[in-house]
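Renewal narrative, Specific Aim 1. Our central claim is that a sequence can be written position by position from structural information alone. The example that follows is taken directly from our test logs and has not been curated for this report. It begins with the structure tokens describing the chain, in the order in which they were read.
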């Protein structure tokens, strides 16, 4: 069973894990670190023809596409045990130097990151609550690696493809939430690549979706602290931050 998957409702189930112990005499002495690194290299090799470049030292594949940096990064667990457990987690993120430059003009230097959207790969959609791959069992390792590659094609690349048409993505953000695209980042993205009206439309959509936050937002608005106006945490603080920074309503 290559992939350990926890599904969100309406399909809540956890595939049986860990797999049955390896029979005596089949336990592998392969160092967990080497197994993990080899798997990462195999996955990276499979997506190199798509324009990704693999940085082994960073366990990260990146490509430049339409002005955005798309990255797929690999991580494992400090609890790995050679021959028993070698976990693989993946992250997929989108960054923009243009957005970073825009932020530098509008925010304190320390807040001007290039991050746009993304995170752990299960966050890219609404289907999965968690996804990870187990590489320890050499009997199904090839299938496990192929499953990770298939996941990239089925889930990660379509997510990245949204950024091929920035205008359409901004319009979508004004209609509905896009997974792994935080409120502050989505409003700043619309402001940078569209304008204030587009940013306001994204904010308005959020406020329509979260009418339950109206009282909390009003309270934050009246009692906004310096920290809220610098590094907002919850959604109410983020709304106040965006209004203060960008003159939104």
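The sequence written for that structure reads:
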């Amino acid at each position: 069973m290559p992939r350990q998957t926890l599904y969100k409702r309406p399909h809540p189930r956890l595939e049986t894990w860990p797999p049955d112990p390896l029979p005596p005499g089949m336990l592998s002495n392969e160092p967990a670190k080497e197994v993990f690194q080899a798997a990462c290299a195999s996955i990276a090799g499979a997506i190199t023809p798509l324009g990704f470049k693999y940085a082994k030292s960073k366990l990260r594949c990146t490509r430049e596409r339409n002005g955005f940096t798309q990255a797929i990064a690999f991580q494992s667990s400090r609890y790995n045990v050679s021959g028993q457990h070698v976990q693989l987690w993946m992250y997929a993120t989108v960054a923009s130097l243009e957005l970073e430059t825009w932020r530098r003009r509008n925010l304190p230097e320390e807040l001007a990151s290039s991050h746009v959207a993304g995170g752990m790969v299960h966050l890219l959609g609404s289907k999965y609550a968690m996804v990870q791959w187990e590489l320890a069992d050499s009997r199904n390792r090839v299938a496990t690696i192929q499953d990770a590659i298939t996941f990239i094609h089925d889930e990660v690349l379509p997510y990245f493809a949204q950024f091929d048409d920035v205008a359409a993505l901004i319009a979508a953000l004004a209609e509905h939430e896009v997974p792994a695209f935080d409120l502050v980042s989505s409003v700043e993205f619309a402001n940078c690549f569209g304008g204030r009206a587009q940013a306001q439309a994204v904010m308005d959509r959020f406020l329509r979706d979260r009418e339950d936050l109206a009282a909390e937002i009003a309270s934050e608005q009246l009692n906004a602290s310096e920290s809220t106006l610098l590094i907002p945490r919850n959604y109410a603080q983020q709304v106040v931050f965006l209004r203060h920074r960008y003159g939104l309503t």
